[in-house]
Every structure is written in C-alpha cells, then in structure tokens.
Amino acid sequence: AFQDPRVDGILGAFDVLNWHLKMTTWLSKEARTERVEQVLRAVDLWEARKKRTWLMSGGMRKKVEDCKVLAQRPKIAVFDEPTAFLDVPSRLLMWKMIRELREEGSTVIVATNMMDEAERLSDRVAIVNLGKLVATDSPERLKGTTKGGEVLELVVGDGQAFPRELLAQFSEVRDVTQVENKVTVYLSSGRLLLPKIVETLTNRGVKIDSVHLKEVTLEDVFLNYTGQRLE
Fold it and tell me: How many CB atoms lie within 10 A of CB 185?
C-alpha cells in the first residue's frame, strides 16, 4: 500500500478493490465480492462503496489504499505510512487490522515515521537514517540501548547556550543531547533528581520554558542514533 493513495478516481471503493483482487489473486468472483465487502465493512466504508474515490476525503482514499493489502492477504504485506491522513479512531482500527493480518500468517513490513506506530505493530524495528540502516532489533531491546531508563525533556529559551557541564555533577545523568532549543537528558533515575536539575539550571540563568519527564520511547532511540528530530 502506497503512502499516497493510488486509486482510479472514477471508480468506487468496491470496484477498486474488486479489480485489485482480480489482478493479484485467483479468487472466484463470489469470493472476491465477499472479501471486498468484509474489509469495507470493517473500515466503515461499505455505505460509500459506490462513491467515486476522487470525491472521497484523503482519509477515505487512504483506507481504500490500505484495504488493497488487507483484502489481498498476501504472504508479504507492505504498508507505507498506513495511517497517514487518518483520524485517531481510524488509525487505531487500522493498527488492529494490520495486527490481525500478521496473526493470520502474513509477514508485515511497515514504513513509518511514527514511532508509536512502529512500536505497536512491530516485532522488529529497523532505523534508517539518510538511506543507511543504523540499528535493528526488537522495540524493547532497542530501547535498552539508550543510556538511562528515563528521559527528561527541557525546552529552553531560544538562542541560549546550554551549560551541559553543570549536569556532569549528577551521577544519574547518562547523556545530554540538544537539538535547537530542546534539550534531552537521559537519566538512570529522574523522579528525585528533577527538582535539583531545574534548580541548578535556573540558578545558572537558564530560562526553562517547559519540563517533561518520561520513560524511554522509540523516538528517544531514534534521536540517540541519529541526532535528528522526527518531523
């Protein structure tokens, strides 16, 4: 399934999927009809099955694009940004259907910039930066490679030089990275240390706009390997 929907705008959703199955499977006409109805009902597009796709919203067209793979049920299923253009309920539904496809025996490959999507859908994650593979493993093992078990995110004033050396006095601090005005501090334990860090930086004259403490995520892993922000 492509990131940008590749569907014939003149055809309705039913005809698009029926034609796709005719070209990619050996299913009988009756089996194709049953399969198409099943997936269209599952993604709440059955009532719009005859609506020409060029009249559909971007989210509806994306559902039709994803349904090509869901209806085909191939041995190797490839999705490129499967939930682009989808609202939250539709995104959760699509994740559920992709997991079910995997449970039915398909090998599922998902290309995505959404780290929560990768974590929800993947047994193994590959991180690619500038066309190069930089890391691959299970989500949990990748998170285990990040220094520290918690992440402190600080947004500081624009143009401020961040005094990293001040944090070196804390043994719990494992690493510090900065992208523009966002500073990420990797900690072995941050709950008790947070007030001390904020006080130390404030006393040094650092303007802190926001503070957020969280557990390590795949986004932190991405930043750790690439030093870039996800857009």
Answer: 25
Whose tokens are 């399969």? That residue is: 35
Residues in Cβ contact with 175 at an 8 Å cutoff, skipping those fewer than 6 apart? 147, 148, 185, 186, 224
Record: fold of 147-215: Alpha-Beta Plaits (3.30.70)
Task: State pTM to two decimals.
Answer: 0.74
Helix axes 88-103, 29-42, angle to 10 degrees: 140
Q: Which CATH fold would you assign to the domain 13-111?
A: Rossmann fold (3.40.50)
How crowded is residue 94: how many other Cβ atoms within 10 Å of its Cβ?
A: 23
Within 8 A by CB and 6+ apart from 202, the residues are 208
Pairing of β 76-80 and β 107-111: parallel
**Residue 115 Cα distances to 13, 104, 120, 214, 229, angstroms:** 30, 24, 9, 15, 12
Tens-place pLDDT, residues 149-178 = 788 899 988 777 788 888 888 888 888 888
The pLDDT of residue 231 is 44
Write out the residue limits of the CATH 3.40.50.300 domain(s) in the chain.
13-111
Q: Hey, is 62 helix, strand or coil? A: helix
Q: DSSP letter for 75, please.
A: S
Please state the three-class secondary structure of 123-174 as a single string: CCEEEEECCEEEEEECHHHHHHCCCCCEEEEEEECCCCCCCHHHHHHCCCEE
